[in-house]
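Justification of computing resources. Each target in the renewal requires a structure prediction run like the one illustrated here; the chain below, 289 residues long, is used simply to show the kind of job we budget for.
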Amino acid sequence: MEGNIWISGVIYGLSMGSIFFLLAVGLSLCFGLMRIISLDQLLYYSLGAYIAYTVETAIHQPWLSVLSGALAAGIASLVVERWVFYRIYARELTFTMITSFGILIGGVGAIKYVWGLIPRPASIPVDIQVSILGTPVPVYRLIIVAIAAGVYVAIQIVLNRTVIGKAIRAAVEDVDQVEGLGVDVYRLFTLTFVGAGMLSGLAGALHAPLVMVDPQMGLEVVPFVFMVVIIGGLGSIKGTLVSAFLVGQVVSLGSLIYAPLAQMAPFVAMLMVLLVKPTGLYGSPLLRR
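Resulting structure tokens:
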């Protein structure tokens, strides 16, 4: 197989891994702080894609449409957090997971009602290519990788160098102690949840030009997002980044070797990691609150 095919496969894997990271990091943030499994993040992913498509179709400003998708997802996540999750934070993990899945299914139905069932194509913001070792590579995929890297750096800066970030890190370790110091932990919950929703919407808006915008697109990535979170370790931002790129490369390069590997190989990788380290690459045992 020619070398340029492998280079294209690696770049494709990096861009897919970046999308997986932006989507899965919301799940990790929500679990790390609130101890909830927020499957509704997949709804904000779909919503971000549809809003980006709608705005781009109306005003033909692709980057503004990406921003609009992220902001719309953030607003939707704020509404859901205030009306639903704010009331059930103290419930069991399985209860919040089932609730979030119900929100996801209901949201998919709402998307079908508003935009219909027909998949829609979104325009690529940057339709040029550069040569890497003699292989033409779409610049847009490189931009997605750069955005994901920037988001990771921004999250680390916020968590380690800001007052709010330090409060979030402390609440991850012991939420009761932080609350005893007079910190409004529920405000931290809201900020974290909305931030996760915006990142999920950003993932959808960036992914929209690479796929057909479809009501089922959130449900279609459920297995991959779960694999990313499980391999990296629940609640670990670093683990989410590493596992997202790992899954992206396994899917991309596996499809070059043998097409069915694109679906099967990530599960094999997940099982191998869990056999060696049951909590994931950077995970820690489940803490009870």
